[in-house]
Amino acid sequence: MSWLKNAWYVAGFQNELDDAKVVARTFLGVPVVMMRHSDGRITALEDMCPHRLMPLSAGKRVGDELECAYHGMRFGVTGICTLAPGQTHIPTQACVRNYPLVQRHGLLWIWMGKPELAAPELVPDIRWNDHPAWTPSRGYHHVEASFQLSVDNLMDLGHESWVHLRTIGQDDEEVIPNYPVKVTVKGEGLLHAHREMPNIDAPPFFAMLLEHQGKINRWQTAVGLAPSICMTDFGVYPVGSSPDGAYRSHVLHLLTPETEKTTHYFWSVARNKRLGDEALTQAVCKAIEQTFDEDAVVLKIQQSQMEKFGGPVPRVALKVDEAPIRARRMLEALVKKESEDPNFVYRPQLMIDDTTPELAMV
Amino acid sequence: MSWLKNAWYVAGFQNELDDAKVVARTFLGVPVVMMRHSDGRITALEDMCPHRLMPLSAGKRVGDELECAYHGMRFGVTGICTLAPGQTHIPTQACVRNYPLVQRHGLLWIWMGKPELAAPELVPDIRWNDHPAWTPSRGYHHVEASFQLSVDNLMDLGHESWVHLRTIGQDDEEVIPNYPVKVTVKGEGLLHAHREMPNIDAPPFFAMLLEHQGKINRWQTAVGLAPSICMTDFGVYPVGSSPDGAYRSHVLHLLTPETEKTTHYFWSVARNKRLGDEALTQAVCKAIEQTFDEDAVVLKIQQSQMEKFGGPVPRVALKVDEAPIRARRMLEALVKKESEDPNFVYRPQLMIDDTTPELAMV
Amino acid sequence: MSWLKNAWYVAGFQNELDDAKVVARTFLGVPVVMMRHSDGRITALEDMCPHRLMPLSAGKRVGDELECAYHGMRFGVTGICTLAPGQTHIPTQACVRNYPLVQRHGLLWIWMGKPELAAPELVPDIRWNDHPAWTPSRGYHHVEASFQLSVDNLMDLGHESWVHLRTIGQDDEEVIPNYPVKVTVKGEGLLHAHREMPNIDAPPFFAMLLEHQGKINRWQTAVGLAPSICMTDFGVYPVGSSPDGAYRSHVLHLLTPETEKTTHYFWSVARNKRLGDEALTQAVCKAIEQTFDEDAVVLKIQQSQMEKFGGPVPRVALKVDEAPIRARRMLEALVKKESEDPNFVYRPQLMIDDTTPELAMV
Lengths: 362, 362, 362
What we know:
The structure is a homotrimer of 362-residue chains. By secondary structure, chain A is an alpha+beta fold. Chain A has helices at residues 147-155, 160-163, 204-210, 278-309, 322-340; strands at 8-13, 23-27, 30-36, 42-46, 60-62, 65-67, 74-75, 81-83, 98-99, 101-104, 107-111, 135-143, 181-187, 190-201, 215-225, 229-238, 247-259, 262-271. Chain A is globular, with a radius of gyration of 22 Å. The interface between A and B is medium-sized, with 25 and 23 residues.
């Protein structure tokens, strides 16, 4: 399947451009270089000199311009060439492409499609990464698999008992997939997969969060927002206490295709409790890093097996594939619309309504 | 040339499956996982979960079943899925292919062709690996070349003076190829190439075996059995003594194509003297390892040159190529029969008749 | 573009074949093995046994013959097989190709085209590498880019200020490309690009050569000789002194395509001053090595970007590309002539006339 082009993709964390840093990264197969200007504006340029293809990021920043490391050509904010050493006339073709880049919710967002359609209000609302009521633990994984395998993995609530046995899974007689999942289409490009696990032993990660060793109630909702953002909303609270006081996290999985076979995976785990507890912030970072390492191994194997033996996955669909398959279909429908109408833009909805948590458990 | 499919190939040594071990190996391009069950039966399954292509060998063994590392699907002896977590109905396509696997002569044998043709009596008779009158020294090499280059190399009795100068070759004024070789077709798929070298200085390896430094008589017979088993029958004895008392070895070269460009090379050097001498068993292992390392280097270069510069080998045929070329033709004839009749099975003959050693020397 | 075949290419330094050494190198995609015979003659043979493709250079030299490491076949001076162990008749096809090889100006020159056209008087005159009035500093770089990118880079006098800032470039308000370059076609396959830089601060490398820290006059002439030899003629002298006493160097860039994507870069920096100063010879070697390392990095990136993103370079032509583009056109014209007439041979002219240095500066 091809990529949805007219959409905002996460390009990085906002603070990565602090201290006049120049960040080079490939999105949807295109090498891009990003920087913040002295007036605060941010830009994303094609990371390739139009002369002899040198990455501009291999050169140096001179004020608000990028200077090529080979012949000293300089490029300004909009990608226009401002200096071609040895000549006064600058050829009009000597410019690089300029991609819309905005910052929102503590993140950088890039638009690789038609620039004139890049309305900032189309940026998905993932407020939890940058909101006073939530404290985030953030990180990044480079995944050696397509973004679709990553989305499959995040929407599938069934692999925890095996892949994450040592972290968020539980080694119980009652394996996680045996708790029923309810999959609901919430609107165009938006899907929820919800599961409740009442009265279970707390897996190690949740025991740490709750500082509680006894039985807990747990719910999880996997939210899929086309083209490639997922969120795992989970809540845990001791059996007998009120769900209103649950420790709740919004785990943001911000995926951006790098190439057909690799994916940028920015993540942010926002919690609603112990907000100022910096040690907990670090502990969550560490635990999540380990958990996503476990995913990355499985995804890389899956990608390499697909390349070696061909064909799409799943070959045989199981119940755990219900949400992944529906998420794929949602995206396919959007890609089809875009291919039929290059001016089609898709308006992402709010991923979850925090005021009505899906808590039916007692 | 394509592979002969309806044939037993060596899949490993029998004891590799001891202690509930799970062994993963690729044969004829197909990844396979092998294990021995609690009731003693052995099985070979396709090493790939039908769900998301994970190698089953990356999961764990649970009793007599294999559990996938991703979603916990379990597969039993015959390849049928016995458990799909989260659901009671198991899709009928959720099974993996099951390959006939038998043990014979201390080895595991696998059948990658039509399963219904896999009669155990078609396993080649290589009794010497596992017979009280013979003591084997065993080992394994992974060869980065096609099995055909390996067979060529084993049937060609002419490269010793150069490739194996430091081990079994001899640095003489009379190089080995100058001793005539007699090539004989012994039946369908069976070839002998025989040479006698009377009254020669003992090369280092043979001096060690005989514990004798003077002149020796030596014979060697390269036996080729389609599709890919070779045996070097050699005998050495001091000049003046009787050939009946010769130190004799059956060097079994058990080749199985892994991919088009790589080969499993199981070997077993069975001897008829000093049977209980464990130090000698080890010394032979070490010497043969070194000798076959020398072959592996040459084969890898040859394979890579063929890929780089194209075309079959030999480009120019020499006399040393007589047996290799006839062995190839024998195999081609069998492959042609199989391609014309998918139910064709080939019945391997006894490789050599020990009771009448080909000893004409005095 | 394809290679010009009927031309002498530099194959190495003459002394590389001393002490009976056997040198293996690939030219224009063909593996070649070179040696000097006991009678002083030198030969270049195809480095591949006609039997099973083994590189002859992997075998050993036996007198004036090469012996294959696999079956001991031997090949003599002209590439004819002189010995095929195990047989008296040697097949006529059992020979390897023989390439004309001559030594001139301290270098080895090979002819990969039609052998009958290989007249030694067609060897380019690069006398400065081996002439009593000049002292060379020599070296070799393996460049991971096509020879054309290397030629482009050498004919382009505009990249010094960026690529070679720490060596021969100058970090001035007046960057090098701002000094005008005059490009002149000097005859078939011969191009000059000349620049003068009067009254400049001496870059580090030139200050070392002149043992002078003040203002200098500098000129440089990039000479391009099809198919792939370049020379940078540069001169420097203190402002106020006579140009006749200038420290002058002929930097010979002797490029030979190895493959479509890699290049042999033999170099020799001949100077006209301090001829016996061995410490200076070494210092120049070291400085040039570092300078060409800087080029190699840029060329490798450019090659890999071209492979990744396609298309020829430059995408947009600048003034600095005038000489590179004209050099390419000169070579294209020769290649076209050769493709139309396989017997066409091109006669390289003298690269520069030392008696009339292009010194207009005061």
